[in-house]
Design brief:
- By secondary structure, the protein is α+β, with helices and mostly antiparallel strands.
- It folds into three domains: 62 residues; 77 residues, no CATH class; 93 residues, Chitinase A, domain 3.
- The chain has nine helices and eight strands.
- It has a four-stranded antiparallel beta sheet with strand order 5-4-7-6. A two-stranded antiparallel sheet has the order 1-2.
- Helix 5 packs across helix 9.
- 13% of the residues are buried.
- The model has no long low-confidence stretch (mean pLDDT 92).
Length: 246
């Protein structure tokens, strides 16, 4: 399959293998369309275009110019450096034991602060806020419907839903009221610089330590980067000592 010929330009075959390599060189967001027939046709057309203009460059003997030679030399340098670094780092790994040990020794770094999930209604006057509160507590309106009808905050279109937030993410007055409220309780009016709020807490999450499963992959990546950095720096210093003229 990889040797299937997709096109021929001046006697040179463009194979499926070359096409696949070309697609892999595209940005990740474009690669997502690789199975789309129209996208495949466009990619093949780009590849054919490269061959055509390369052929024109040969006919003009651009590959014999000093500029071409300089570009090739720079490209060779860059590719060699990338391959050497890949070879240097290829066998570096982080064991499960190393990850677990780091987690156990640094548990305090993985504390999850307390959060609440809440909805709110924002209006511009205390009187209006009290009127809406009365309609909610009487059962005349659901909190979410009242938010859609009356809240001046964009969250109103989502029934006032603010999602989950921790301390320090909201203005002081709002935060204090939300964290003090009972689940399901509507509190307010709460005055802030933005106006008057009614707040309904949906859920509370107490401060806790993150589980090992939640953080193990991030720890692994951090330790891997540290190891790679150490190996890279050691090799860099050795190469400077060996090759850099003073």
């Amino acid at each position: 399959m990889s040797q299937e010929v997709l096109a021929v330009v001046a006697g040179q075959e463009i194979t499926q293998k070359e096409y696949d390599a070309f697609v892999l060189g595209l940005p990740k967001e474009q690669q997502a369309y690789a199975s789309n027939p129209q996208f495949k046709a466009q990619c093949l057309e780009q590849l054919v275009s490269l061959h055509l203009f390369a052929k024109m460059g040969e006919e003009q003997k651009l590959d014999e110019t000093p500029e071409f030679e300089k570009i090739i030399a720079n490209a060779k340098r860059d590719v060699l450096a990338q391959m050497a670094m890949r070879e240097l780092l290829k066998d570096i790994a982080v064991s499960d034991e190393e990850v677990k040990t780091f987690f156990e020794e640094n548990r305090d770094y993985y504390k999850k602060d307390a959060t609440v999930s809440a909805k709110h209604i924002l209006v511009d006057s205390e009187e209006k806020c009290n009127e809406i509160l009365a309609s909610i507590t009487s059962g005349e309106k659901a909190f979410e419907d009242a938010a859609k009808e009356s809240s001046t905050c964009p969250s109103g279109q989502r029934g006032g839903d603010l999602g989950e937030f921790g301390k320090g993410q909201m203005v002081k007055e709002f935060e204090e009221a939300a964290f003090a409220a009972e689940i399901g309780q509507v509190v307010g009016p709460v005055k802030t610089q933005f106006g008057y709020h009614l707040i309904k807490v949906e859920k509370k999450n107490e401060a806790a330590l993150a589980s090992f499963e939640e953080v193990k992959e991030s720890i692994r990546q951090m330790l891997l980067q540290q190891k790679q950095g150490e190996v890279y720096n050691t090799a860099y210093d050795e190469l400077r000592e060996k090759y850099l003229e003073k």
